[in-house]
Amino acid sequence: MQRLNTYISGWMLALMLCLAFPTAASADNFAATQNFAGSNLNLNGKGIRTKLFFNLYTAGLYLQQPTSDAAALLSGTVPLALRMEITSALITSETMESAVRDGFKLSAGDQLAKLQPRIDQLIEIFKEEIKKGDVYDFIYRPQNTIIQKNGENAGTIPGADFMQAFYAIWLGDKPVQADLKTQLLGQ
Fold it and tell me: Which residue of 22, 57, 67, 151 has the fewest C-beta atoms within 10 A of its own C-beta?
């Protein structure tokens, strides 16, 4: 019986370590320069989204010119891209929907009701099964946010106002994770 308990304890520890410390994102997914919807953009910063002690995804912010000025990026006048690589099986369509809704509640302020149809459009994109290793690109070309999943177009959502609220989830005054904001801004 003790041998069985030792085996189970060891197995549980191994499982917890795998969940807490997944393998690092592929360097190819976060190259120094990437082409996003016809625009060559440069990696400004990269970080890991964590919750409790779980690594959920790696995110990289791509810009034409390096900057740490979040307000300038949220102005809606420059192309930018956020790449997100899912690094945990804890990210599912349901958890992504919940996270998106919570993020917009913090970032959209009094614009939430106006943005709701476009938020729902984004959530529809996440209804397709999400797996560890999936890569999402959120590409803003002034006036439109293009969403790609694993290199395939998944949708386009119009409006600088949508982009401002969406990117503010990571870069706004109330970011989802302060140290991730700092890392994306290259600080």
Answer: 151
Q: Is residue 11 part of a domain?
A: no
Q: Residue-wise over 84-121: b if at least 16 C-beta within 10 A, else e?
A: bbbbbebbeeeebbebbeebbebbbeeeeeebeebbee
User: Within a domain: residue 19?
Assistant: no
Reported as a single tens digit per residue, the pLDDT across 146-178 is 999 999 999 999 999 999 999 999 999 999 999
Place of tokens 């302060």: 178
Specify the CATH number for the domain of residue 42.
Answer: 3.50.70.10
In whole angstroms, give the CA distance from residue 62 to residue 107.
20
Q: For residue range 95-108, list pLDDT tens digits in order.
A: 999 999 999 999 99
The domain tally of the chain equals 1
Q: Containing domain of residue 52, as a range?
A: 24-184
DSSP state of 113: H
- Cross-strand partners of 59: 47, 84
Strands 33-36 and 39-51, by their bridges, are: antiparallel
Helix (H) or strand (E) holding 87: none
9 lies in some domain: no
Task: Tell the residue number behind the tokens 């729902």, with chain if given.
Answer: 120
